[in-house]
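Hi everyone, sorry if this is the wrong subforum. Our group has a chain we'd like a structural model of before ordering constructs, and none of us has done structure prediction before. Sequence below.
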Amino acid sequence: RGMHMNKALCYLKLEQWEKCILAVNKALDFGGDEGKCKYRRGMCHVKLGDSTAARQDLERAKELNPADAAIAKMLKEVDKLDKKQEGKAKATFQKMFG
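Answer:
Right subforum, don't worry. Here is the predicted structure as tokens:
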């Protein structure tokens, strides 16, 4: 489990988001620290633009580690991502139905 967490951290630092997600999933399969795993996977989902998956992982991480400021900060990033995606969707619909 520790090996997969270390791999996930390396992939995170190398900005290899998909590989990081796979390593985190393996770590969870082997009983890795769920809070840390969910946080790292949530960060990757943010970087990949998947706010739904990011929010799900980060909310769980926050339940497990409520005092962690890094989790709260990343949840704010998810809020920004949601607003950005809503703006893009609105612009697209205005062009289509304008």
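For your construct planning: The CA atoms of residues 21 and 75 lie 18 Å apart. The two ends are 53 Å apart (CA to CA).
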